Each structure stands twice: as C-alpha cells, then as structure tokens.
Amino acid sequence: MLELTDVSKSFGDTTVLRGITLALPNGETTVILGPSGSGKSTLLRTMNLLEVPESGRLDINGDSVTFGAQLTRRQISAIRRRSAMVFQGYNLFPHETVLDNVAMPPALNGKADRVTARARAVELLESVGMGHRLEEYPDNLSGGQQQRVAIARALAVEPDYLLFDEPTSALDPELEAEVIRVMVDLARERRSLVVVTHNIGFARRVADRIVFLADGGIGFDGAPEDFFASDSERIRRYLNVFDAV
Amino acid sequence: MTDFLSLWADSLPQLLLATVKVTIPLSIIAFVLALVVAVLATAMRLSGIRPLQWISRFYVWLFRGTPILVQLFIIFYGLPAAGITLSAWTSAILAFTLNTGAYAAETLRASVQSIPRGQLEAARTLNYTGWQTVRHVVAPQALRIALPPLGNDLIDLVKGTSLVMVITLADVFQVGRQIAATNFQPLALYAEVAVIYLAIFTVLSLLQSRLERVSNRYIRSSHA
Asked: Which GO terms are recorded in the biological process aspect for this UniProt protein (chain B) (predicted)?
C-alpha cells in the first residue's frame, strides 16, 4: 500500500497540493488526471521524494516518512527504493549503452552483482522489445525506444511502485503506442503503476482507478466507469477538452 | 636562407634541450596539479557548504584577477620577505598550478552546471548515493563538456611558461634569447622558438581532437 496522508506542498506563494490523502493498494494501476497546473506531477514526484512536501505523511509498504522536519539520507533512501520514476524526457544516461543504463543501477544499489544485473537487464530489455539494441547509445534511439529502455531501467531496481510522469507526452502517436503497449503489459502483470498522463484512452482502458486532481485537491477518486460517467461539472469540462480534439 | 637554416641547425639542440628540460615538464606537472586543484575547487564551490564556497570563489577570483607575471613575482621575489623562500622551479610550479587551476575550476563548474537537471533526478529516483551520482552520472558527462575548454587552458599554460625566465628558469624562450644575444640573430632565433611552440601546439591539438572524438562517441554525429 502506498499512502499519502494530508500532504501539502507549495512553491513560494503557490499552494500546489492541499492536504492530499490517498491510498493506493499494490497491484493496481492508478491514473492521475487533471488540468495542467493541478499538481499531478508534483503529487507523483512526492511519492519518490523528488519533491518534499511541507507537511503530511508518506507510507509505502512499511516504510514511512513524516514531512516537516529535515529528512535523513537513510529515510529518503528507504522510501525511494520502494518506487522508481519514468520521466517525460526519458532521462537515460547518454554516456552509457542501453544495457549499462539498465544493468548499472541495480549493481550500484547492491541489489545484484554485476553479472546477475546484466543478465537481468537483458531479460528486461527483451521484455520491452529492446533486446536487439543492447550496445546502442540512447542518442541513437527514437523517443519511443528510449522510453521503453527507461521503463526497463525503472523495473531493474525492483521497485514496489512504478511511477510514470507523462511518459508519452513527448512522443508522436505511433511511438506513443509502442510505449503504451509496454505499460499495458505491466498493468496486466498486476504491477503497481501510478501514471500521470493526458492519454485518456489509456485511463479508460487500463486504469483500475482514476484520481482526478483539481486546484491541488482530489476532485475524484474511484473507478474509471464512474469517472467517465460523472456529471461533475469540473470533470465534464475537463473531458470535453479531449472530446473536442 | 642557408644562413638561416644553419643557424637553426646549430641552435636547435640547445633549444630542444630547454624545451624538454623546462617547458614541457613544467607544463605537464602544473597542468596535472591544476586539474587536481580545479576538481577540489569545483567540489567546494558546488558543495552547498557556505565557507567552502567562499574559499573556492576567493581562490578563483584572486588567481583569475591577477596576471600570472605578478603571481610569479610575488611567489619568487615577494614571499622570501615573509620568510618563505621557494626555488625557481617550485615557484613556477606553484604559480602555474594555481593560475591554471583557477581557470580550469571555472571550466569544470560551468560543465557540471550544464548537465540537465533530469540526469540528476534520474540518479535520485534510482537511489544512487551522492558519490555514485558524481562518479557515474555527473563526472563522465561534465568531462566531455569540459574537454575542449580544458585543452585551451593547457595550451595557454604551455605558452605562459615562456614567462619563467623572469624567475631565472632557462626555458626554451630564455635559451633562445641567450643565443640571440651572442650571435646577433634575433629574427632567426625567435622565429625558431615560435616554431617549437607551434610544434607543441600542433601535437596538443591533434591529441585534443582525438580525445574529443572518443569522448563524443555516444553523441549522434548529426549534432556532435
């Protein structure tokens, strides 16, 4: 279970998250939707402590931190190893080959020795359809390929939760489709996914649960069927934008 | 013309000897030490610890803000007045190390800061320690970016060593001067000295472009 309790975060004078409370069980795919500026990315990044809120509490499968006081390195590391982030801009290490990008993190984390880490990396890369480009540098790959490698890299550190921060927003539709396919596979394997996306189709077809953020608060938290049938004015207005495209 | 060539042939052994005994070893020793100093200064500058940042900034400010010639004079002729007497060699190494180190520190700082934020976030989300992030993410990328400007710092250093005559060291330029003073052929001798510097520069440039090619191997050629 990943639990956020009364989490608040502001940047300067702007409050981005207002007392968010949320519980995400293991094995579910949660899609976080909301208009831009609603705090989706901040909420997601909080789960991995890339953003540290001012107040509230975060619990992930037995590790917890309370925000407000200075966090120790040990606390941060304990929480962080529970999840791994897939970024909009991929953020692969450009100076490492595809294989090293995936094999190095678990080796450096002490999760596996180098030989095991490499063997596992090959498996992961094959599972995302990148087994044929092991010795390539990221710069020579398409955006979709880079993102699939980034997913393999996130899987390599064996996180409980995989966090996706607009993973396909930088991609052309056909490249987006290949990344979405990998994510659908992960959802089918009952991995715990938390996905911030503008891909409404993914939310409709794959999500077990939709969290709708508006103005830093939770505007909806429930099943996709209920979300897409909602007569809440704010949700309708949000969804109409997509229908219009 | 034959005069010119025979002059060159006569003086070349002495000039090459001075090059090998002073100019090149001084450049190499000072550059290696300067890199160590620069890494330290950069680490301090980016440490986030205020007093260390101040020390680093002060150092760079002091040594970029004063001419190398003045630095040589202070160290060799000035410090004895304060009870610190250093040999000409030690003074030269110290001055060129600190001077080049200040420039190289600025180069390294700019390189580190030009690494995209996303790289650091990726390291964080993968739970890299601070040292692992430096060693496996920041340093390799910063070094690639820093290579061309560091090469320039080295070339400036080599040419700058021609100033060591003022503290009594007999580098290639000083030896050239001495020969010119005895044979009254300044044009021939100084041209010869210039050619020796050009030869060193050419070798360094070739070395640099080869290094850059290796370090750029992961950058797609279309925007390398």
From this structure: amino acid transport
